[in-house]
Amino acid sequence: LGWRGLLQLGVATGVAAWATWATLLMPGFRRVPLRLQVPFQPSGPRQVANALALLRGRTGKTVDLGSGDGRLVLEAYKQGLRPAIGYELNPWLLCLSNYRAWQAGYHGKVSFLKKDLWKVNLSDCHNVIVFLAPSVKPPLATKLLAELPDEARVVAGRFPFPSWTPTVTLGQGLEQVWAYDMKKVRRAAQ
């Protein structure tokens, strides 16, 4: 290739990466403060299985905050958690989620809503799934403590809530998930 070919390849790769970011990922971040932005990282099959294992046997409304491509919501519905709802700001990921729901035969049975998780009332949620960045966890912990009922369980993937003690954990490394029962979290906070 030579140095000129390598330079052209590098520039083309950079332009392609920027175009992908600008069209697919950036739309969901436009109104979110920089410190609260979370890039889309799809959950692996083991992460999904671990998260849903910590919700096995539970009932009530299940929400995924920052639902991405919808895989956790679809699996929650498949395992009997109803209603199953995903909140996502990125319109491209919402389209992908709805397509995946249609493809799985769950169109109209699960919901993917373009709503800011900071503006959604979670007081009727009993199962909350959160696969978000560490910078989001402290302000989100305050919101969850204020809104969730005592019977609620929060399952966090990738990063735990720094000030909460988990009720149970499952997995290792990137596949680890943490479950927090709100009644215990509130008791520990007092």
Topology (SSEs and partners):
Layout: H1 2-25, H2 45-53, E1 62-65, H3 71-78, E2 84-87, H4 91-104, E3 111-113, E4 127-130, H5 137-147, E5 153-157, E6 168-170, E7 177-181, H6 182-189
Parallel strand pairs: 1-2, 1-4, 2-3, 4-5
Antiparallel strand pairs: 5-7, 6-7
Notes on the structure:
A seven-stranded mixed sheet has the order 3-2-1-4-5-7-6. The termini are far apart. α3 links the parallel β1 and β2. It is globular. Helix content is 39%, strand content 15%. The protein is built from six helices and seven strands. With 190 residues, it is an alpha/beta fold. GO terms for molecular function: protein-lysine N-methyltransferase activity. One of its GO terms (biological process) is methylation. InterPro entries: FAM173A/B, SAM-dependent_MTases_sf. Keywords: Membrane, Methyltransferase, S-adenosyl-L-methionine, Transferase, Transmembrane, Transmembrane helix.
Structure, briefly:
The chain has 190 residues and is an alpha/beta fold. The protein has helices at 2-25, 45-53, 71-78, 91-104, 137-147, 182-189, and strands at 62-65, 84-87, 111-113, 127-130, 153-157, 168-170, 177-181. It has a seven-stranded mixed beta sheet with strand order 3-2-1-4-5-7-6.
CATH C-level class of the largest domain: Alpha Beta
Gross geometry: globular
Question: Pairing-aware structural class of the strands and helices?
Answer: alpha/beta
Strand order, main sheet: write it out: 3-2-1-4-5-7-6
Using only C-alpha atoms, the radius of gyration works out to: 18 Å
